[in-house]
Amino acid sequence: FIQMLRSAKKRDVLQLLRRAPEEMLPFVVEAAVAAQSVASLAALSDFLDFGKEPKSLLEKFLYAAAFSPRPSGELLRLVLDKLDGKQLAPEVQETGIVAMGSLIGKLCQQKLCGLQQEVERGVETILRGLRGAEEESEVVIYLLALGNAVLPETIPSLLDHAEEGPATITTAAISALRRFPTRHISGKVKRAMRRIFHEKRKSYEKTCRLAAAEILLDNEPSPMDVINILLAANELETETATFLLLKVQNSLR
């Protein structure tokens, strides 16, 4: 079916979308996303009205885009155009932001970051949204998107939120940082994780401290980091201390 859509003209895909029975429509939308031909994406652009379509169908489209193994710049542009400047249901908006991050990350994995204007536009959209977010839940969604994008230039912003935010934001920011390969876990990142684990600036929840310790132990830990984490474990409850001890043993192996 996807192969057929790849060779179909825009008007035929559009007709198929318009005539599909209601229960089949999500399948056809997913297939059109998977086809990723110029015609199928143009047909989706014409067909999907983010102001009118049911939330379930819009979310199906966004999930299909997010999980696309090798997305194109055109698919990211379609998602950006559909989200841009519109008043959407919160669920659709959140799914769209996370999907945007996923698409950016996969395009960069394909070494298309510098070649696609859509990537730059997508990153700016996420960062602008993060700066303007007022609710904790909103901030977390944008941090999740940055975690999906895995762009080194966003690390300073993630570090700020990791150290300064309330527990949910700190957890989301550290989770995003854990997605980065070791080469991007710099001395600056490690210093911030030490401050969080050893609570140098303020108190942090146990989950945040453990996540910070994991970043230190999973990314070429220094002997001093290992010693300090083990010493600190003596003051933690048994379950937490055992977890850290197992992490250290795994690193040694």
From TrEMBL:
GO terms for cellular component: basolateral plasma membrane; endoplasmic reticulum; Golgi apparatus. One of its GO terms (biological process) is lipoprotein metabolic process. PANTHER family: MICROSOMAL TRIGLYCERIDE TRANSFER PROTEIN, LARGE SUBUNIT (PTHR13024), MICROSOMAL TRIGLYCERIDE TRANSFER PROTEIN-LIKE (PTHR13024:SF2). InterPro entries: Lipovitellin_superhlx_dom, MTTP, Vitellogenin_N. Residues 1-232 form the Vitellogenin domain. This is MTP protein. GO terms for molecular function: phospholipid transporter activity. It comes from Pygoscelis papua (Gentoo penguin).
